[in-house]
Amino acid sequence: MFHGAQNRRAGMEISRKVITGLLLFGLSSAHLLASEISINVRWGTFSPTQLTGALVLPEQLDGSQEFVQGRNDTSQDGHVSSGGGDLRGMSMNSLSWTIQPARHGLYQLYLFPQAESGINMRAWDSQVVVEVEIDGEVHRLDPPSSSNGNAWHALTLNGATGEIHQPQRFFPVRRMIYGNVRNAQDGEPLAGVTVRLTDALSGTSLESHETVTSNTGFYVIHSFPMGRYNVTFEQEDFIAATSSVDFMRHDLPTLRNALLSQDNLPPSSIRIALSWGANPPDLDAHLRGPGDDDTPFHISYHNMRIYNERHYLDVDAREGYGPETITINGLDSGTYQYTVHDFTNRRNRNSWGLAGSGARVTVYHGSQQVAEFPVPQREGTVWDVFTVDGDTGNLTPVNDLRFAETP
């Protein structure tokens, strides 16, 4: 991490400027599980910078992910392979990946200057060309223009539909964790939050990589050793939150936003905080539970903002990022069900918008964080996250996606 407070602030300022923009590029027609997809990257013959890259494959059922390097690499099951040199063999200033056949899920392409591994604000060559060929139909993506960084998140490809998103995100370094920390109850950024990185196996804190959030709540930690880590967020008068990150199989930029709950919850109360990225703009939290006269209650943005003066929706976000926060003050006998609905894509039965949103649910019970749920990488517009037994207070993960226009 940056050494010294001055360097930490400078690093956060630089990185915040680099991690910008979300440009969507949609295909004119959807391709359902294309038989063959090719991704080809070319750059100028006389360019001083040689590129390398990594194609991240769809998440597997156990939550693990594999990635295929940019030259002469193959996925474990053989459905993705990569090569160098263009298709005519005329230039080595190229990279290519072949997906055959495509799988359900999201493929993500990252490109890097080959010789750089540390912090780099290199200006990207506007002659870099990225083309995606789906069953013979070629689509050219916009080149990087006046952008700087050591890692370019060039595209996200939906293997089920052939839809392409062009994020146009640039990062100063490959191996980094970044994000924003906010108050779960009002969505305001939290400055001065201490962010610590701890080895998940040994429990050892990497003190040289400790940092604090800026005035906008932003932080970045980078250039740490490969490994599995816990990221802990601590602020006076707030409950500490922890999120796990795995850098054993990749060294790609990883987003970890955090929503901290004020440390004022009674022991019997539960606070549930939902955060996500810029897209889809409107995700909604829903809570069902036992009500009066055997009639279940339903808290959401449109059904009920408060029930029996005890359970309520603190924040309803409609322009991306969240938070959507629900507080339960005391449990009654019965089952509580918490779900997240992709209101933006509610009528799209092929949607991977929720899976690609980066959504995370953090659960606080009394003065502790008791659970965190990342959204599964599957199709669906409704995410059934967990249930709570009102008699015992036990939380049971569900963590599944399904389609429903109204949850």
TrEMBL record:
Keywords: Carboxypeptidase, Hydrolase, Protease. GO terms for molecular function: carbohydrate binding; carboxypeptidase activity. It holds the Pfam family CarboxypepD_reg. Signal peptide: none annotated. This is Carboxypeptidase regulatory-like domain-containing protein. Gene3D superfamilies: Carboxypeptidase-like, regulatory domain. It comes from the Bacteria. InterPro entries: Carb-bd-like_fold.
